């Protein structure tokens, strides 16, 4: 048996999160009427001159700084000539020799170990339009062209071939997505095509120095798809090599339903795109103060935030990593926490409510946390009411159900429904006496040394109080009464 190693490199396109396109003022809105967001520039009318969107440049540089790139102060745009049925000018404005950012890196953690992946480049370019293929009557097929997406700014990132397994590729993309979402320079939603990934895979013997023939896989639209496509491709290439065959350099498509890759076209050497400097856009020079200003806007990243959650709020590794990995969740948590008087005492319970009850309900109703019917302030109130003993944890769940349904204030619900926790000692003592009287069997078991029987007796007392008695007090008073 030959021992193979897989070699993987990624090419990632992310749609830049700006209101307008990269070379004109048209809107980038997703889901508008076809061809509504177009003008003479993005429909490529002869003589129309592109004007660079400063915000798009800022987004690329911010992303570059976050990924430790060298920012090239002098940068140019390039025309990439090609027949693009979805872009009437038949060339793409992109960057080739002098991209905005070169040589970045990203740290990933796989199986508990850190690995640094070098990133070749990050550059700015424009997206194409979209072809919609239709089957007409009498088998007359036709295609419709929607130019709403043409000219939308993209950043393209290309990694070095340094990833060695499907898990590493998955983690790279996951970490990249987390960071870019934190930066808010792209929404990175793969479902909406705002993050697209091409995967390059080759195999070599473990002792071999040079790389093997690579295959490029396109059309993958989810993170798990990336992992599955690479896993499939590794097995396919191994089989060919083991049976003495040779791989050809080609582009393959990922068929998500069948979970296979299928040949699309062979790629013998580089296509000749006849790159040349874009004459309609001047080379640009970035100043230090422009770059440094952007560096100041870079927020704290998921991993650092997770460490801070552990250190400052005493959260477990699991809770901190769940909350910190998504910016909206982390923001929700910290905003809710800002309403708590004693942050240290409430941090854990608040975290628990977010990743159990709230998370479960949001998932079932398919609502994003940013649109949560339970506001940060109301969840903070609920947790305070549990902590100060106004309501029991059990009642809190009932209150929470109503908070979620009606977006209402927990204090109001508790008042209306008379849910307040019973902390009056004389009332609890009376309940305890009744329970002791009615359950002589459990009581004698407890008295004869079966300490566990207390649990059942507490449960019965809680039930008698309809869940409203303060459980700590019930426990304490019962023990006192049983001792006498
Ligand atoms: P191309 O000219 O075919 O586009 P590039 O050199 O630009 O190739 O690399 C494209 C991507 O392929 C990069 O992410 C790179 O890391 C990756 N890559 C290059 N060679 C290999 C290889 N032998 N195996 C796997 N990935 C590779
Ligand atoms: Zn336009
Ligand atoms: Mg390339």
Summary keywords:
binds magnesium ion, three-stranded antiparallel β-sheet, binds adenosine-5'-diphosphate, 3 domains, single chain, Arc Repressor Mutant, subunit A, nine-stranded mixed β-sheet, binds zinc ion, 484 residues
Work out the count of structural domains. 3
Say which molecules are bound, naming each kind only once.
adenosine-5'-diphosphate, zinc ion, magnesium ion
Question: Which word captures the global form?
Answer: elongated
Class derived from helix and strand content: alpha+beta
Question: What percentage of the residues does DSSP assign to strands (E)?
Answer: 15-25%
Largest sheet: 9 strands, mixed
Mean pLDDT, to the nearest integer, reads: 93
Total strands: 16
Spatial arrangement of strands, main beta sheet: 2-6-7-10-1-11-12-13-14
What does this structure look like?
- The chain is of the alpha+beta class and 484 residues long.
- Helices cover 40% and strands 21% of the residues.
- Helix 7 packs across helix 8, helix 12 crosses helix 15 and helix 14 packs across helix 15.
- Zinc ion (ZN) binds next to loops.
Summary of the model, kept short:
The chain has 484 residues and is an alpha+beta fold. The protein is built from 15 helices and 16 strands. α2 packs antiparallel against α3.
């Amino acid at each position: 048996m030959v021992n193979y190693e897989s070699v993987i490199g990624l090419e990632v396109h992310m749609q830049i999160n700006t209101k307008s396109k990269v070379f004109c003022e048209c809107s980038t809105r997703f889901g508008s009427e076809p061809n509504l967001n177009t003008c003479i520039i993005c429909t490529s009318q002869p003589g129309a001159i592109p004007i660079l969107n400063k915000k798009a440049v800022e987004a690329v540089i911010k992303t570059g700084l976050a990924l430790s790139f060298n920012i090239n102060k002098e940068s140019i745009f390039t025309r990439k000539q090609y027949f693009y049925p979805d872009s009437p000018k038949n060339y793409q404005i992109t960057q080739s020799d002098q991209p905005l950012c070169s040589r970045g890196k990203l740290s990933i953690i796989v199986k508990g170990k850190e690995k640094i992946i070098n990133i070749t480049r990050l550059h700015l370019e424009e997206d194409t339009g979209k072809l919609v293929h239709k089957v007409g009557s009498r088998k007359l097929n036709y295609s419709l062209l929607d130019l709403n997406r043409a000219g939308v700014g993209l950043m393209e990132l290309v990694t070095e071939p340094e990833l060695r397994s499907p898990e590493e590729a998955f983690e790279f993309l996951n970490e990249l997505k987390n960071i870019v979402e934190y930066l808010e320079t792209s929404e990175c939603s793969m479902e909406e095509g705002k993050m697209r990934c091409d995967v390059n895979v080759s195999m070599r013997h473990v002792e071999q120095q040079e790389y093997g023939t690579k295959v490029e896989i396109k059309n993958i639209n989810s993170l798990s798809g990336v992992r599955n496509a690479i896993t499939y491709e590794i097995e396919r290439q191994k089989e060919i090599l083991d049976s003495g065959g040779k791989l050809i350099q080609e582009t393959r498509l990922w068929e998500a339903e069948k979970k296979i890759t299928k040949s699309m076209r062979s790629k013998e050497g580089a296509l000749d795109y006849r790159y040349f400097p874009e004459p309609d856009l001047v080379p640009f020079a970035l100043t230090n103060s422009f770059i440094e200003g952007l560096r100041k806007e870079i927020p704290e990243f998921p991993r650092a935030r997770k460490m801070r959650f552990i250190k400052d709020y005493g959260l477990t590794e699991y809770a901190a990593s769940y909350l910190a990995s998504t910016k909206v969740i982390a923001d929700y948590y910290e905003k809710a926490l800002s309403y708590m008087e004693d942050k240290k005492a409430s941090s854990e319970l608040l975290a628990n409510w977010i990743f159990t009850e709230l998370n479960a309900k949001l998932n079932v109703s398919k609502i994003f946390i940013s649109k949560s019917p339970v506001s940060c302030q109301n969840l903070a109130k609920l947790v305070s009411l549990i902590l100060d003993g106004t309501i029991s944890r059990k009642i809190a769940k009932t209150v929470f159900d109503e908070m979620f349904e009606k977006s209402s204030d927990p204090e109001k619900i508790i008042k209306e429904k008379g849910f307040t926790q019973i902390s009056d000692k004389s009332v609890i003592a009376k309940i305890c006496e009744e329970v002791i009287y009615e359950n002589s069997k459990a009581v004698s078991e407890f008295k004869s040394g079966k300490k566990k029987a207390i649990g059942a007796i507490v449960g019965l007392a809680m039930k008698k109080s309809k869940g409203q008695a303060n459980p700590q007090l019930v426990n304490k008073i019962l023990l006192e009464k049983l001792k006498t």
